[in-house]
From TrEMBL:
Keywords: Oxidoreductase, tRNA processing. It comes from the Bacteria. InterPro entries: Rhodanese-like_dom, TrhO, TRHO_N. Its EC number is 1.14.-.-. It catalyses: uridine(34) in tRNA + AH2 + O2 = 5-hydroxyuridine(34) in tRNA + A + H2O. Residues 123-221 form the Rhodanese domain. This is tRNA uridine(34) hydroxylase. It comes from Candidimonas humi. The keyword tRNA processing applies. Catalyzes oxygen-dependent 5-hydroxyuridine (ho5U) modification at position 34 in tRNAs. Belongs to the TrhO family. It is an enzyme of class 1 (oxidoreductase).
């Protein structure tokens, strides 16, 4: 039975005092048994948290007690096991990193399209449908017919738009563009950016893929495959049930059951995506890390390392054994 509530949230709002919010927010989450990652920046808040239902709702109420976040929205799902190992509240320049200054999602984002109306929009042959997620996310699932920009990070997206707006590009001469991402936050910025580039009819899936999978029945769906998520579930399917993918701890790419049958798959050390990319010294470190994980698993515990100070380097300290990819969780 699922017993941990998972809440994905974000809001673009001016938080000039975001650094001062970090400590009290971290303490409040930990006091209520809530784990996950929250990103704070001057432009707002973004993240995913999980824990007992009462604890998660307490944290959401705590955030909404700030008048600037009174209308903060979130998406809920359930997990049978705690999908995070610790609670982290990080200070960032952007809550989703595009690297383009002066983008104003609060006022410039495209038109929201709810899950119930999304099929009709993407079925229109005059609409270019763009998946704004990273390539490793797209590789395990996307909407039928969607364009994959093949980006490795969201900061590459503006260059892709500029290139594809040139004659012969998929955006050249197109007036109607629909975009989607995991939870909606990347679409807020990507549609705002497109509008600054002269695109007038820009749409995005309200609530992202997660809201679509939650609300649209599988038999009516245009979704194909699974949806990558930034927690220990790794992927979800319709109804937000846990998917079939695992995670390679060496390269942090999703791995299928077929990948695990490969001669290049060694749990915690390598997979078909990253075999040959790491030197022997690094592989030895990965193997030792996996040995510690296996020992903890044998004792019925999780090997999670220790909570680090905000400025510490988690990789250098070796404390973040099972962290998910350092990317936008929504």
């Amino acid at each position: 039975m699922s017993k941990f509530l998972v809440a994905a949230l974000y809001k673009f709002v001016r938080l000039e005092d975001h650094a001062a919010l970090r400590g009290p927010l971290l303490d409040y989450c930990e006091a209520h048994g809530v784990k996950g990652t929250l990103l704070l920046a001057a432009e707002g808040i973004n993240g995913t948290i999980a824990g007992p239902q009462a604890g998660v709702h307490a944290v959401l109420a705590h955030l909404r007690a700030d008048p600037r976040m009174a209308d903060l929205s979130h998406k809920e799902s359930w997990a049978g096991e705690m999908p995070f190992y610790r609670m982290k509240v990080k200070l960032k320049r952007e809550i989703v990193t595009m690297g383009v200054p002066d983008i104003q999602p609060q006022s410039m984002a495209g038109t929201y399209v709810g899950p119930a109306d999304w099929n009709r929009l993407v079925d229109d042959p005059q609409v270019v449908v763009v998946d704004v997620r990273n390539d490793y996310e797209v590789s395990i699932g996307s909407f039928a017919g969607a364009v994959n920009p093949h980006t490795s990070s969201f900061s590459e997206f503006p260059d892709w738009v500029r290139t594809q707006s040139q004659p012969g590009g998929v955006l050249s001469g197109k007036s109607r563009v629909a975009m989607f991402c995991t939870g909606g936050i990347r679409c807020e910025k990507s549609t705002a950016y497109l509008r600054t580039q002269g695109f007038d009819e820009v749409y995005h899936l309200e609530g992202g893929i997660l809201k679509y999978l939650e609300n649209v029945a599988a038999e009516d769906s245009r979704w194909q495959g699974e949806c990558f998520v930034f927690d220990e579930r790794v992927s979800v399917v319709h109804g937000l049930e846990r998917g079939s993918y695992g995670l390679c701890r060496a390269c942090r790419q999703p791995v299928s059951e077929q990948d695990k049958l490969s001669e290049f798959y060694v749990e915690g050390v390598s997979c078909p995506h990253c075999h040959g990319r790491h030197d022997d010294a690094r592989k030895q470190r990965f193997a030792e890390r996996q040995r510690q994980v296996d020992l903890a698993r044998g004792r019925g515990r999780r090997h999670v390392g220790v909570r680090l100070a905000p400025a510490a380097d988690a990789t250098a300290a070796g404390a973040t054994v099972a962290d998910m990819p350092e990317a936008e969780p929504s």
